[in-house]
Amino acid sequence: MAEVPKSLECPICFDIMEAKILICDRGHSFCSCCHRRLKLCPFCGDSMIDTRNLLLEKVVKAYWKDPSTFRNRMREQLKVEMPVRRSLKKY
Ligand SMILES: [Zn+2]
Ligand SMILES: [Zn+2]
């Protein structure tokens, strides 16, 4: 089985996050199950808020699409986001 990146695990139940990821007032992320069970964040003690971590949800979605190639695809994406300006000055 492919290695699961740590940032995709819920820090409470250690399951890989699924569709809905919610955060506390300071931005710690939890799966929706743990978020529902906890009133206060176990890391900072702030209250849980009803805000979703959309960026992480996107990453998790990409992971579930094909876990075995997830790392390579993420690496490719990083390459695309770093523009190569020199190649534009050809003539
Ligand atoms: Zn959880
Ligand atoms: Zn917190």
From TrEMBL:
SUPFAM superfamilies registered for this protein in UniProt: RING/U-box
Ranges where the RING-type domain occurs: 10-44
InterPro entries: SINA-like_animal (IPR004162), Sina-like_RING (IPR049548), Znf_RING (IPR001841), Znf_RING/FYVE/PHD (IPR013083)
Pfam families reported for this sequence: Sina_RING
Any GO BP: ubiquitin-dependent protein catabolic process
Keywords: Metal-binding, Zinc, Zinc-finger
PROSITE patterns linked to this entry: ZF_RING_2
One of the record's GO molecular function terms: zinc ion binding
Protein name: Putative E3 ubiquitin-protein ligase sinah-like Protein
Organism: Tribolium castaneum
